[in-house]
Amino acid sequence: MGEMPVVEQAMPLYYAIIFFLKDFPILANIFAVVLVSVQAIVLNNILEKHQVLSEKTKIPALIYTLLICCCPPLLALHPMLFANFFLILLLDRIFLTYRQDEILTKVYDAGLLIGIATMFYLPAIVFLPFYLISISMLRPFNPREWILSCAGFLTPLAFVMTSFYWTGELTDFFISIQISSLSTFTFDFSLIFPYLPLLLVLGFLSLISIKRYIEEMNNRVVKVAKMYAVFTWFFIFAVLSILMAPSMSVVFVSGVIIALTVFLSNFFVTFQRKIFSEFILLLLIATIIYSHIVPL
Question: Residue 267's Cα: distance from chain center in Å?
């Protein structure tokens, strides 16, 4: 397990939890393992519940766990790991709105989940427009639903701002909220060399999985095709959240892993040549093990 990092653009809810765990690194590591395990199970259950994949399988839980464990920094308690939990729950709220009449509670919950995720990691705010795009694809426009979603998003922010106001630190809170731009984004290419074999395998697997995903999108029923489109938009906004980070670090790709899990799971479920797909999976596991050994 990696050590708990000091991360720019981490928000108050993250620091509130880290405050209690900073002196107990073993407990923090255990908490990270439990958090990843719960996320994998919840994501798997959501995909089964909404029949996103063509069959019921535990492959998504396996893929998500493997991708989160692919390199040591991702195993630390970073803010995006917390945000992922609420973003996964957000997907369930989005899919529950499809062809439903009474969804006001669900849309408020969706905004609330994005707000909580943002109070852990600031760039998670990009998932608010993602959510609005998603419900626009799944149902007709309703201004009340959009207003309630925004109200839900603002609720955690209001609580946090109130707590800072009572402690006289509200100005410091606003100063700390600074979203990075592309002009300040930095990337150290030397960081990728230890993970080059993993990146090559994962890149190849991602390309063929996305190709398969697009083919499946055109062949599925309308509801599933729209859910596929939701995951595509999720992937786009997850990449955008990386660009809003102050620098390129593997810890910021956690959001992308949610969408990649769906792409890769669809490939392994639908690909007919099982021997080839099993070989690719074993190769992925081997490169993950290699990425843990090389940096030591």
Answer: 19
- CA 60 vs. chain centroid, Å, equals 14
Residues of the chain below pLDDT 70: 1-8, 175-176, 178-192, 246-250, 295-296
Residues 75, 2 contacting (CB under 8 angstroms): yes
Token pair 């255990």: residue: 30
Helix (H, G, I), strand (E, B) or coil at 142: coil
Kindly give, in sequence order, each residue whose CB lies less than 8 Å from that of residue 77, ignoring residues fewer than 6 positions away. Answer: 4, 17, 18, 21, 28, 31, 32, 35
What's the pLDDT tens digit per position in 128-159?
Answer: 999 999 999 998 888 999 999 999 999 999 99
Round to whole Å and give the CA distance between 242 and 244: 5
Residue ranges making up the domain that contains 61:
12-171+188-293
How many domains is the chain built from? 1
pTM score: 0.89
